[in-house]
Amino acid sequence: MNTKGFTLRHLAFTGPGLEPAGLHFAPGLNIVYGASNTGKSFICKSIDYMLGSSRPLPDIDERRGYNGIVLGLLLPGSREVTLYRSTLGGDYLLFEGLHEERPGNITGTPLHSEHDAKSNDNLSNYLLTTLGLEGKMIARNANGEKESLSLRHLMRFLIVDETAIIDERSPILSGQYVTDTVERNVFRILLTGRDDSAVVSTMKPALRKARVTGQIDLVDEMIAGLDEELGEDHPTRAELMQQTERLGATLATHQHEMRSRQDQIDTLLVERREVFDTLNDLAARVRELDVTLRRFAKLDAVYVSDIARLEALEEGGFLLLALADRPCAACGAGPEHQAYHHGAEEIARSHQAARAEGRKIEYERRDLRHTMTSLGAEAAGLRRRIEELDVSLSRIEGELAELRPREAQGRAEYERLLSVRDKLAHQIELHRRRDRLLARRSQLDVRPARRPSTSRLAVGVDGGTGHEFARIIQELLEAWKFPGDPQVGFDLATHDIRINGKDRRANGKGVRAILHAAFKIGVLIHCRRRDLPHPGFVALDTPLLTYREPLKQTRHGPMAADELVLRASALNEHFYRSLASMQGLGQIIVLENADPPKDLLDVEVTAFTGGEGEGRFGLFPSADNQSH
């Protein structure tokens, strides 16, 4: 298990309605082999893309429909994380744990794609910190100008595509003149652990003079611009400070007056709100009383009608009782000779009942009239109170009408004074900037003392380190049974290896490929033996190019003589067996066309058939097998 670097666990493409497409990786040796155009080389590009590359992914037909990529990593300390990035580029999301697609129920940690050595919110410095490589500095030229080490500086040692592996240039160089020094010094950091933090930057006298002259011209131009902005006959800085002080006192007075007026307005607004609320309450009470009095008036009319009816009943009963026990008006018969007495007793009772009911209603009517008088008095009092509050409301509105224009006028004047103060402050700032520029101008006029010449800055690895590194590559070639008796040396000028005195670049493509692979794996072994930081994995695309089928792979041309010698050997089998034995050193991913030996142990082997024979189609499923 790789405990000093990080291990790739899986790479997967995801998209809506599609099953994740990718593959898993194991610690140690991983082999992906099979037919051409099945996505093997695309794996290298995808890993590079997920580790900070700004290059867009190739727009191959097979990946259309997939809009995201996840890369599972095992970091030092057995911490598992997953990186997510859109196929369109941009920044990353980091999720704890291993996920084969973007988790929907977990909030990821954003990581910027651009390197920033001062923060861990970017992928580069985040991973460098896990490796103990954060804060390393690289000299980018012979004068000692420096830049911070980024993850992208290391990618040349981790991922080797099918073009780079046969390149004639040194495996550590891109061929760009401006980056040559940086690339050599990155190689030194890996092989020695020493960066360029202690290097003192120097500058050529001619360049320094030109730089100072340019700075003086720039400062003069800036001073002229400030003079133009200040204008002719502009007040001095001291005069501006005095004006600002006087203006500050005036602003304080205006602010006090504004606050006083605003307090008065706020008090009147509160008072007006209270009057409004009271008026609304009183008006509601008056309306309620008016409704009640109208209802009571109707009830009083009912009482009057009832009393009149009862009085009529009482008078009728009185007349009937008065005619009782008298001779019949028709025949003159006396009461004693009459057959019908006309209910004199009932009439008497009705007469008494009418009288009692009348007295009761009279009593209730007196109570009602008393209540109506009381409610009427209350309503009259409330109306008088409403009139008084209307007067108070008119007074408040009048005071507000008087205060508001004064407050608005005072605020406008205050804002005008603030504008004047801002202009004064701007002019004072112009004077300050002008004074600073004048001071800088006087400093630039002072010529620095001539420094004694120093020795040229050392670039790349030294001879001893190069020799030690060459011995490791020789061990690898011997383990792989490289034909002949390979004696490996390191050329400090080219920063590349020589085999028996022959430059690596002078060999055929297939030989260059296997030597390039030995170079990159040798860096990993060297770092592990010296306990130096290394990301811990190497991905190689077609290192065994010599074993290609010339008739099927014509783009590499006919084989050179040294390639034919190599092809006739069993190096390919020893290559795989040697890498399989390096379980504890790190993770090695080999992408090849030909089959590996079938008896390899503890090796993750994936075959891409391209639709022929057993095994998976390729990195992406065939169009017929995609799940929509």
Helices, strands, pairings?
Layout: E1 7-15, E2 18-24, E3 29-34, H1 40-50, E4 68-75, E5 79-86, E6 92-96, E7 109-111, H2 123-131, E8 137-139, E9 146-148, H3 151-154, E10 159-160, H4 180-192, H5 205-230, H6 237-323, H7 344-445, H8 463-479, E11 488-491, E12 496-499, E13 502-503, H9 509-529, E14 537-541, H10 561-567, H11 571-580, E15 587-592, E16 604-608
Parallel strand pairs: 3-15, 3-16, 10-14, 14-15
Antiparallel strand pairs: 1-2, 1-4, 4-5, 5-6, 6-7, 8-9, 11-12, 12-13
Helix pairs in contact: 5-7, 6-7, 8-9
Short characterization:
It contains eleven helices and 16 strands. It has 628 residues and is α/β, with parallel strands linked by helices. It has two domains: 7-199 and 457-620, P-loop containing nucleotide triphosphate hydrolases (Rossmann fold, 3-Layer(aba) Sandwich); 237-445, Helix Hairpins, CATH 1.10.287.
